[in-house]
UniProtKB/TrEMBL annotation:
Superkingdom of origin organism: Eukaryota
UniProt-recorded name of the protein: LCCL domain-containing protein
Protein keywords: Membrane, Transmembrane, Transmembrane helix
Biased composition, class Polar residues, residue ranges: 16-25
SMART domains with a match to the protein in the record: LCCL
Gene3D superfamilies per record: LCCL-like domain
Coiled coil: none
Length: 736
């Protein structure tokens, strides 16, 4: 009975005793770890109390914030937990669609160029071919055939005109002479039909804005040979309207100044609607249709070259740096020299300007690449086709904003422009909605990667900085292209398809902003933003005029009250948009000044309608002009409507219309110190920040070649060339 069973139990007891002794020996060993968990567990007593509610636990960490309502605290805690992201963050990586197709370019390189040295030679050779092709095509576009009797055409900008707005041409327009018997060969770039005035421009009693400044031309039923335009029309826009050049390729031609003309037609031709004017103007011009001139704008060819070369580079490179920096460079110079160059005098001056902008742009480009997320987005990306389409394609779209986003009715993000331009506020609202949707989607992606909090902190710093800029007195915040790109780029630092698209678009914005407009300041003064818009200055109070009608001669006399302040020391009167009277007040302000204007019957025996506008003078600068009062053909006077109409000319920010051609520069323009300069005559082009003048060689048909005497001087960004022309049959030089 006690045999096997008893033996088994004895063995089990022995093993248990040995195990206990062994355990005791191990625990009591001086080097053995102390099993605190076991002892603590032995000391713990079962707790029958109910668990502490979660909201009370949360309350313990918010003792300092008891004044905050509990729902707000609970919501804040929930948001904080959500922003931290999932317990295990995931980095997004693009898995190529149709990988065999997208990996094919890399497979070709691995097969035929396995050695690194061969690939390096191919890479730099490819870039050299791109550069040489670009230079050769651009050089071919700089060549224009000489026009017989006129010489080589002068390159002009889309906004060049023969007349300066307001009183810029001086009394009776003398600073813009000659009015007739002169001309020159010109060359226009492409896409001038879209060049518009951005602030109201008065033409008689009309106010023109957001359309080309083209006044007159042939009617819709007559031929182009009868095209006569008012002198302040944009030359290139008028040439397109007349059919002399095309908008897609530009071209060259010859403009002839023909003096005073009346009754300018309104018509729509070749995509441009001209403006009518039913009175006379002292300077008019037409185009010489008999002239043979050949030139071509090669900007589209240069764009095609850069797009093709950059696309192949995107397909056959996997290194982020080897892809990004050549694309950035090629994009910059394509914009700067072809698709959207700034106003310039000649190619050397353009290159000088753009090289100065390019060097800091490359530094900023490196910061964008290494510190703002571009490297992170492109590293490890093997979806070659998607990279070329999404990143590079969007990059070109952003770089061509003057074409791709030209339909958006927003010129500048300023309160004045948004209120003035039709559709601007609606467009801005749509843009904000799109940005909010993009923001929400990017927030979700950053949360999944566990990087949301760091980026929210970064954008909080951006927001504080912008608020400070807005609150600074006497300064206005300007969000330029490049500023927008720098602000939004950190929000694209991940490898998703939407981020590829957004990032490429922003890089294009940055390149276009710097290449076209330069490093414009983020904070600008009201004067810099003013441009040629109204100044909201006091307007002269014009009394009822005294009219005397005669059979062949009639007069109208205007009187006005005293000036509104000591800073206004004179008055200017425009008749048909030409300054006909300028007077400065005497010390005796009790003398009521007046201005008498007389007119005779025209060639057809009828009086012509005339438009009068008045402005106070402050030194040599005019303030806002009144709206136009009309003295009609029958001698009846129509009072002007309240409010300003004519514009102050541009100061440091340039002049509306980019310039004028072949006229004298009157003294006292903004940016110059009167008394320290002499009057000079300049030949083209008033543009950009100050003037840059072309040296022009004039040759009249059948006459001697012009003798040039160049006198260059500078002042506040101004470079002017004096050109003296000896006319045939004259012993004294005349200015042209």
């Amino acid at each position: 009975m006690g045999g096997p069973s008893t033996e088994v139990h004895d063995v089990e007891r022995q093993e248990s005793t040995i195990a206990s002794a062994s355990a005791t020996t191990i625990v009591e060993h001086p080097d053995a770890p102390i099993d605190d968990v076991v002892h603590v567990a032995e000391l713990e007593e079962p707790d029958s109390r109910p668990p502490t509610p979660r909201f009370i636990q949360d309350e313990s960490s918010w003792k300092r914030w008891k004044w905050v309502p509990y729902p707000v605290r609970r919501f804040t805690i929930a948001v904080g937990r959500w922003t931290r992201g999932p317990p295990i963050p995931q980095d997004f990586k693009i898995k190529p669609l149709f990988p065999q197709i997208q990996h094919a370019p890399i497979a070709l390189l691995d097969k035929y160029l396995p050695r690194r040295a061969h690939r390096i030679w191919l890479y730099f050779g490819y870039l050299a071919v791109w550069l040489i092709t670009f230079i050769l095509v651009m050089r071919s576009g700089l060549v224009a055939t000489e026009v017989e009797g006129w010489g080589t055409p002068i390159p002009i900008g889309c906004g060049n005109a023969n007349w300066i707005s307001g009183n810029g041409c001086g009394l009776d327009g003398n600073d813009c002479r000659p009015f007739s018997g002169s001309g020159f060969a010109f060359r226009c770039p492409a896409n001038c039909a879209s060049y518009q005035v951005l602030n109201p421009r008065a033409v008689g009693d009309q106010e023109i804005i957001y359309q080309p400044m083209v006044i007159g031309g042939p009617s819709n039923t007559s031929s182009d040979a009868n095209a006569v335009y008012r002198g302040d029309s944009f030359i290139c826009g008028a040439a397109i309207h007349a059919g002399v050049i095309t908008d897609t390729e530009g071209g060259c031609g010859v403009v002839n100044l023909i003096g005073t003309r009346s009754n300018f037609n309104s018509s729509t031709r070749h995509g441009i609607s001209s403006i009518s004017f039913d009175s006379y103007f002292p300077l008019s011009f037409t185009f010489d249709n008999a002239v043979q001139c050949a030139s071509k704008d090669v900007r589209w060819s240069l764009l095609a070259i850069s797009v093709v070369f950059s696309t192949f580079l995107a397909l056959f490179t996997t290194s982020p740096a080897l892809f990004y920096f050549p694309i950035f460079t090629g994009l910059y110079w394509t914009v700067a020299l072809a698709t959207d160059p700034p106003n310039y005098q000649d190619i050397p001056s353009l290159l000088s300007l753009e090289v100065g902008r390019f060097l800091p742009a490359m530094l900023a480009g490196w910061v964008m690449f290494d510190k703002m997320g571009i490297r992170r987005t492109l590293t490890g990306l093997t979806a070659q086709v998607e990279k070329a389409v999404l990143w590079l394609g969007a990059c070109w779209v952003g770089a061509l904003t003057n074409h791709t986003f030209d339909f958006i009715p927003i010129q500048r993000l300023t309160p004045h422009d948004l209120a003035q331009q039709p559709g601007a506020r609606a467009a801005l609202a749509i843009i904000i909605i799109v940005l909010v949707v993009i923001f929400v989607s990017q927030v979700w992606f950053f949360r999944q990667e566990g990087r949301l909090i760091s980026h929210l902190k970064l954008y909080a710093i951006f927001g504080v900085g912008l608020i400070i800029c807005v609150l600074l007195p006497n300064l206005s915040l300007r969000i330029h292209h490049y500023i927008l790109a720098l602000l939004l780029l950190p929000g694209t630092s991940m490898q998703t398809r939407p981020s590829l698209l957004y990032q490429g678009l922003l890089v294009g914005f940055f390149v276009n902003g710097i290449a076209r407009w330069g490093w414009d300041p983020v904070l600008q003064t009201a004067y810099a933003l003013q441009g040629d818009a109204q100044l909201d200055s006091p307007l002269p109070e014009i009394l009822a005029p005294v009219i005397e009608l005669g059979k062949n001669l009639s007069t109208i006399t205007f009187s006005w009250g005293q000036s509104p302040g000591p800073e206004y020391d004179g008055i200017s009167v425009l008749v048909n948009d030409v300054e006909r009277y300028r007077d400065y007040f005497s010390d005796d302000l009790n003398i009521a000044p007046n201005f008498t204007w007389s007119r005779q019957r025209g060639d057809v025996g009828e009086f012509e309608k005339e438009y009068f506008r008045f402005a106070w003078m402050s030194g040599s600068s005019s303030e806002d002009y009144t709206k136009a009062g009309v003295w009609d053909e029958k001698g009846q006077w129509t009072e002007m409507q309240p409010g300003p109409s004519k514009l102050k000319r541009r100061g440091a920010d340039g002049w509306e219309g980019a310039g004028f051609i072949g006229h004298e520069m009157p003294g006292g323009k903004p940016g110059f110190e009167v008394g320290k300069m002499r009057r000079k005559r300049e030949i083209d082009v008033w543009e950009g920040e100050g003037f840059i003048a072309h040296e022009v060689k004039v040759k009249r048909p059948g006459g001697d070649k012009a003798k040039r005497e160049i006198d260059v001087w500078e002042g506040e960004g101004f470079i002017a060339h004096e050109v003296k022309v000896k006319r045939p049959g004259s012993t004294l030089p005349r200015y042209s």
